[in-house]
Amino acid sequence: SQQGEEDPQALSIQEGENATMNCSYKTSINNLQWYRQNSGRGLVHLILIRSNEREKHSGRLRVTLDTSKKSSSLLITASRAADTASYFCATDALQGGSEKLVFGKGTKLTVNP
Amino acid sequence: KAGVTQTPRYLIKTRGQQVTLSCSPISGHRSVSWYQQTPGQGLQFLFEYFSETQRNKGNFPGRFSGRQFSNSRSEMNVSTLELGDSALYLCASSVRTGGETQYFGPGTRLLVL
User: In chain A, what residues touch B97 (CB-CB under 8 Å)?
Assistant: First the structure.
């Protein structure tokens, strides 16, 4: 089963508004990452937050992590039409002695001009 | 540095055929991971290679296989193609392990008729 689950599945907002996406996961993690995917293309890494961090910023992105609730949120402020994409959270999972990333199903964000 | 490259970008095959996809990681990256992305199942981990060794494997049938060469380039092979193998196949590279930040290629879109 998926380790990370994003919520909502889809989000539609107007340009200039803020967008918040949430991710819940099931097991202990070392880090949690957020990626963006434009339609049918490769994923682009946005930000990584480690399990001992609570908040991290990168430009218009703000990520929070609550390990007690096993959840994270991604906030995009002052959204732009170019932010239209699918956003995925990914958690590291230990399997067979090595780590791998497990992705959620993503939140599809539409920013209307 | 050049990014992750994948060839071919698009591929059409018929059921029963086999296919080989290629991935060249970022220079200096030794870990290559492969994912299958479909609308229904999302991003599913296939396998990870590091220093020519398969270090991790997802829950896919034996028809899916891969290998990594001494220059870190990787190939994945799918034999006896089925309609359900139609998907976007993504390759990602990272410096050391599959649990850290991954850099994705543009993907190979495979259509099985």
Answer: 98-99
List, in sequence order, the alpha helices (H) in chain B: none
Average pLDDT over every residue of A91-112: 86
CB atoms within 10 A of CB A52: 9
Do B98 and A100 make contact, defined as CB atoms within 8 angstroms?
Answer: yes
Query: A32 vs A13, A74, B34, CA distance in Å?
Result: 25, 11, 19
Phi first, then psi: give them for residue B63, nearest 5 degrees: -65, -20
The C-alpha atoms of residue B45 and residue B37 are separated, in whole angstroms, by: 9
Is residue A2 scored above 60 in pLDDT?
Answer: no
Q: Are the beta carbons of A33 and B99 closer than 8 angstroms?
A: no
* CA dist., res. A14 & res. A31, Å (int): 31
Determine the distance in angstroms separating the CA of A14 from the nearest CA of chain B, rounded to an integer: 26
Other CB atoms within a 10 A radius of the CB of residue B58 amount to 17
Q: What is the pLDDT of residue A3?
A: 62
Q: What percent of the residues of chain A are helix, what percent strand, and what percent coil, each to the nearest 5?
A: 5, 60, 35
Report the chain B residue with the minimal C-alpha distance to residue A92.
B99
Using one digit for the tens of pLDDT, what is the confidence trace for B23-37? 999 999 999 999 999
- Which tokens hold the place of B89? 């196949």
Q: Report pLDDT digits (tens) over A27-42.
A: 888 999 999 999 878 9
* Least reliable range by pLDDT among A15-24, A51-60, A97-106: A97-106
What average pLDDT score do residues A37-61 get?
Answer: 95
Amino acid at B18: Q
